[in-house]
Design a protein that fits this description.
Blueprint: E1 2-3, E2 6-10, H1 20-39, E3 44-49, H2 52-60, H3 62-74, E4 77-83, H4 107-123, E5 130-134, H5 147-174, E6 178-182, H6 193-216, H7 220-230, E7 231-236, H8 237-242, H9 247-257, E8 261-266, E9 268-273, H10 278-289, E10 300-304, E11 309-312, H11 315-320, E12 327-336, E13 342-343, E14 346-348, H12 350-362, E15 368-371, H13 387-402
Parallel strand pairs: 2-15, 3-4, 4-5, 5-6, 6-7, 7-8, 8-15
Antiparallel strand pairs: 1-2, 9-12, 9-14, 10-11, 10-12, 13-14
Helix pairs in contact: 1-2, 1-13, 2-4, 4-5, 5-6, 6-7
């Protein structure tokens, strides 16, 4: 649905679905009721997640795409954004760091992303821009610091530039504007606003200007504009909150540099203040331990009294260091419903969402808003509402923040 010149939806990666029939079935089961509750008789967009298998299945038979287009039309629905981060199985299996696989050093990631853009180009309504969010190049622990990581970063950047050139060609020939939205995440090659901006300015932009000049004869100024049109940032509020980032400063710096936010992923992380008293501290870490589940990666960034940050690759490592007296706050990568702020001794980073949406309400800096709470199936029971009703409640909460 359209609010304040932007399109608001939820990401369908909340639905366990890995092939095309499962994906289409989940949409049929949930989306009509969600749209009716939130948009009335108006159209509502879909934030579509297609695994590699589902994307191949959708294109396997010509009738599949035509059938899906007809279903969208019949149900006042449209697709404007997609989630191209998780390539393989994302539910009912151990995902952990494999969510980054295959990374941007591989042809598999490149081919998958180009296929998703082909699908999005077929589905995108006339006059709308489309975006696909993707991984932050790779996962740092997979590549040793130094030469190995630098080489992987360079290969990943070249593959992203291949996508950028394809998107430029589509825009020039067909007038359809689409962008790849890079999503920083803790322990990714790009895990903060600073790392993303440094990569964009020092790696992506210089190479992109050369590539577009060589392939299309663009001037440096025109090439820079094209790179900034087609490679954007996916601002996942949960991820930036885990890193204790000052949202207003990051967003202002992006704007000052002409780097666009392709999508805000509206998501909340866990946070907890750790008391000095050990009994009280144990109560907090015991509460956080309820979120220690085996499917997803739950990176933790701790903050010390003097402001230093300590990074843990997953929740078990943080729990093992729970009595570290230097630490007074944890933030954990576990997406919880955005309408929940207080869970007793554990809280969410809901206020970070409020800050980002306040910034958006005062001056819209993206056209795409997507709620992403993919962890519904692994939430503690007390946080689980019926799935359709939970999605409606999340989107209602967001609407109230920006209306």
């Amino acid at each position: 649905m359209k609010i304040n010149a932007a399109h608001l939806t939820y990401c369908t990666n909340i639905h366990p679905a890995e092939n095309w029939p499962e994906t289409f079935g989940a949409l049929k089961n949930h989306f009509p009721a969600i749209r009716a509750a939130l948009a009335g008789k108006e159209q509502m967009g879909i934030g579509l997640r297609l695994s590699n298998m589902a994307s191949l299945g959708l294109l396997a038979e010509e009738d599949n795409l035509a059938e899906f287009k007809q279903w969208l039309s019949d149900h006042d629905a449209y697709v404007f954004t997609m989630n191209g981060f998780p390539y393989g199985g994302f539910h009912n299996t151990v995902v952990k760091d494999e969510v980054h696989a295959p990374d941007w050093t591989t042809v598999e990631r490149l081919d998958y992303t180009l296929r998703l853009f082909h699908i999005l180009g077929e589905l995108l309504p006339e006059g709308l821009q489309g975006g696909i969010s993707t991984s932050p190049l790779s996962y740092k622990p997979w590549h040793a610091a130094g030469e190995a990581r630098n080489n992987a970063r360079a290969i990943a950047t070249e593959n992203i530039l291949t996508v950028m050139a394809a998107l430029f060609k589509i825009h020039r020939s067909a007038g359809v504007l689409m962008h790849l939205d890079i999503e920083p995440e803790p322990d990714g090659f790009l895990e903060s606003g600073r790392e993303f901006i440094d990569w964009f300015e020092n790696d992506l932009l210089p190479r992109g200007i050369l590539v577009l000049g060589e392939q299309f004869g663009l001037s440096p100024a025109d090439a820079e504009e094209a790179v900034k049109q087609h490679i954007n940032l996916c601002y996942d509020v949960c991820h930036f909150a885990i890193g204790y980032e000052e949202h207003e400063c990051v967003i202002d710096e992006l704007a000052a540099k002409g780097i666009q936010v392709g999508k805000i992923q509206i998501s909340a992380a866990l946070k907890a203040h750790l008391p000095v008293d050990l009994a009280m501290r144990d109560e907090v870490t015991d509460a956080l331990a309820r979120f220690n589940e085996p499917t997803y990666l739950h990176q933790v960034i701790a903050k010390t009294a003097n402001g230093e940050l300590i990074r843990y690759p997953d929740l078990p490592e943080a729990l093992a260091d729970g009595r570290n007296p230097a630490v007074n706050e944890w933030r954990a990568h576990f997406h919880v419903p955005v309408f929940v702020e207080d869970m007793g001794v554990v809280q969410s980073t809901q206020n970070d969402i409020v800050r980002v949406l306040n910034k958006f309400r005062n001056a819209a800096f993206t056209q795409h808003l997507e709620v992403e709470t993919y962890t519904w199936s692994v939430l503690p029971d007390e946080l689980k509402a019926p799935l359709t009703q939970s999605i409606i409640r999340e989107l209602d909460w967001v609407k109230a923040q920006i209306s």
